## 1
Amino acid sequence: DIQMTQSPSSLSASVGGRVTITCRASQNIIKYLNWYQQKPGEAPKLLIYAASSLQSGVPSRFSGSGSGTDFTLTISSLQPEDFASYHCQQSYSTPWTFGQGTKVEI
Amino acid sequence: QVQLHESGPGLVKPSQTLSLTCTVSGGSISSGDYFWSWIRQHPGKGLEWIGYISYTEGTYYNPSLKSRVTMSLDTSKSQFSLRLSSVTVADTAVYYCAKGEAFASSWYVFDSWGQGTLVTVSS
């Protein structure tokens, strides 16, 4: 199985600040990397697919980059509704696997 | 917009079988474009993909759970189901059903999710 490792596990940030979350795959997954946002008590929501493509309806302050084994999710100007957990997921090979999540707190 | 809703017992005894159903609305469960998945999240932990069932592609189960998992599809009710046998306390988790789809025929994503249901394994 491909192992996905996110860092940091949690971070503190302020409204209007810039946030960067890293996801590392245990092998080359090209650009088969998705990002999800999960608010407490809710299901995950797809933000970005194919490493850098924004899902329809997702604000442009979210962006993704990377290829191969190293990927990043950036929130350019953090809004109050962005305080949540973020999960990366590889779709390069089954079983599809997720990172352990990163919690963004105030 | 496809909507999904999980249902089933919230409490299961050790060694018994966990059974959950996901009801789909707003989309065709018999579309070959979709991979109907189950995903779970242990308390305070990350997400674990259990597997999928597709009307045209059949099933795929995560090898870590394969010996205990069965998924099925009921097109007449627009439902798909999960059965997980011989459960232990380690199977206590929130279970989500989700619609998987291959964007541009290549990029597999989970783009619609149910709200999740907590299943506790306890005697």
## 2
Amino acid sequence: SAVISQKPSRDICQRGTSLTIQCQVDSQVTMMFWYRQQPGQSLTLIATANQGSEATYESGFVIDKFPISRPNLTFSTLTVSNMSPEDSSIYLCSTRQDPNQPQHFGDGTRLSIL
Amino acid sequence: EDQVTQSPEALRLQEGESSSLNCSYTVSGLRGLFWYRQDPGKGPEFLFTLYSAGEEKEKERLKATLTKKESFLHITAPKPEDSATYLCAVQKYSGAGSYQLTFGKGTKLSVIP
């Protein structure tokens, strides 16, 4: 399976600032996903980012708050904009080669907002 | 609305004490059920995919089974290294060639030596 690297692994940010999380994959993948994992909650899909098309956002998530880039088949970024303490969470990148294969995950970015 | 409920939330076992984790689901048009293992500070690690009722998959001390309403993850003679959070997810077709996963909250398993 693909090796997925996320940067940064953790960060502490000030309220009102923005942070860009990078996701690098060691092989070309068609489908990339961004998830949020809050304490005691299930993984929640933020958006799907397929190369060559605009990201598709799930209900409750908007592009202005979570802009995503997918410049090629091995890289994506998620920006968390105008952060508030409610954005404190783990953000996970996930990839999938095709619908018949399972999704694989990076180790996540642990984000704390002061 | 699709729902995935995992029970128990936490399970504490003695080494060698076998048990089962449950994942009950309601989803229209199930296209697969996934089990993942998540260690602290790590992302979920894929374990199994089950597609149809009656299907079983095994890996070392783990065996996953599927019915029309739930899945079980059986752990036989667990070891301390099996301690982790186990996540269940159901997949359905979401249109335009895409499939979407809905995750449960997980079961935190602790195996005591």
